[in-house]
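Convert to structure. Protein one:
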Amino acid sequence: MLNFLDGVRVIDLTSVVLGPYATQILGDFGADVIKVEPPAGDVLRHVEPARNARMGAPYLNSNRNKRSLAIDLKSDGGRAAMLKLLETADVFVHNLRPKPVERLGLSYEALKQINPRLIYCVMVGFGQDGPYADRPAYDDVIQAMSGLAHLNANDAGDPRFLPIVACDKIGALIGSQAMLAAIARQQRTGEGYYIGAPMFEGVVSYLMIEHLAGRTFRPERGTMGYDRLLTPYRRPFHTADGHLAVLPYTTEQWTRFLTRVGKPEVAQEARVQDPAERSNHIGELYALLAEAVRTKITAEWIDILTELDIPFAPVQSLDDVFSDPHLASVGMFEHLEHPSEGPVVNVRPPYDVRGAESAPDRLAPKLGQHSREVLAEAGLDAAELDALLASGAIRE
């Protein structure tokens, strides 16, 4: 845990992956992230595998560097305690749709009255000014609507979901960036802000960097879609004994590769030497690449491509990644002792930051582990806390 956001308090009323991953990033940078959960806990807690109830692996991997407050916001006491806590906050982030937010009294208009400097971030499926504002959304829904499932179609043209929660995590990265920028401004000016970070718009902005293509221009200069990525030959290539990703990209790399595989005359053609022409003929060139790569085993290609300084990678399984020597040397997978779950593997934050203070990461909390502690810091006394616990408004 770095100390860049030391002293910044984030109230995190989110669940599943979109919001929790975004706030985990803030926690990794040193923010005091208070994870607010219903008495039954974030639904992600229950996703297996798990060693103990409510402490599943996906939850552990997206809620590092947080404290847990379990509270019933439908109760009068729970809502009052939440508002008291929000008076102390720098950031409030939630993934509730408009109607539940209004019922709980947690709208932007309501909270800016009690904390004008609050950064208020909404992380839901769709922007709140459009016709989809009140629709529920999870990763599969956004993969379908954004064009991602269509882009990932199989050879028969059937759309497919990526086997990762891609849209949740893309949205989380975009939302965390917005909150970090707002925090930087808030710390200078004391001003509060509203931030909408919807998944649908976020993923569309992510995809359209390359795929807006010909529609970038008026009048249009071609269709949508980046040709290099859409050719059917863009895939890991068969070697004589496996698969390998090979990517000559520059003119020099293509020239070196084609010359080495016995096609020096092709290397000098305009479709190789001219980057614009190469883009127009990329499918043909990838077909030549696929044909050549089949002729040797993977180990031979690794030696050749290393010598030619051409980007390549063997196709690794998840198990291969877990034992990858580079990741081992940089300590990507940390073997730690969780206070309640025992020995665990933690995927450390991916940053390499030097010259900053840091502390050991706080591993994901048990449900309600910090309820009393957090509300005491917000100003509730022992008698008030005992009453909330007795009524079931909070869980410890």
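Protein two, convert as well:
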Amino acid sequence: MLSSVAFGQHGFKINITPLTKNFYICTSYGLPDGVTKFPANGLFAVTNEGIVLVDTPWGEDQTKQLIDTLQRRFNQKIVLCISTHFHEDRTGGLDILNKLGTETYGSRLTYKLAKGRGEQVPAMTFTNDTTFTVDSLDVQTFYPGPGHTADNIVVWFPKEKILFGGCFIKSLDTKDIGNVLDAYVDQWPASLNRLAAKFKDAKFVIPGHQGWKGGLKQIPYTLKIVTQK
């Protein structure tokens, strides 16, 4: 496991875990209830033309840690970052990346919601499902419908069959639905069904928080969690 050497606010230290060839999970931490340290997963891929990042770490200090670690370990800069929804655990380092010239993207709805909530915003937006290509890496966004938030998207790497589900997908480690302040719980099941139908061949499914060993099982598990009484 690779990890940065610097500590940020609250003493949080990011962890970087290899996933598969050239793909890594970056785990950062926050205090969603003000007390309990809680992990948040992002993902990055290393290419010859730079690093593709899905979701910034949770805040600017941990984003700086990631930038320093990537430069030291891979001698690479982040050239593209896609935020999967507007919450701080997905957007909290966008200002830093924007200053460094990274192409930061989110959906138009993510931009609107982030700006309205006072969160950091991507420099560029897209309206429909979009494919980005960096070097030979294809990166596809997909909007399954409302769930954890109105704007939650997932990111698909078709050649590698890696699905980054973000907070739309629950880890098998999760015991309850979690933060529903911005959720559309009644629409989440239908959105999950759309996702399941589209990504039947995913080899890896990465949730926004906690472990990701459950693969495709995490999709019906999420349905169970969001429909339990």
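Confidence is low (pLDDT under 50) at residues 1-9. The radius of gyration is 16 Å.
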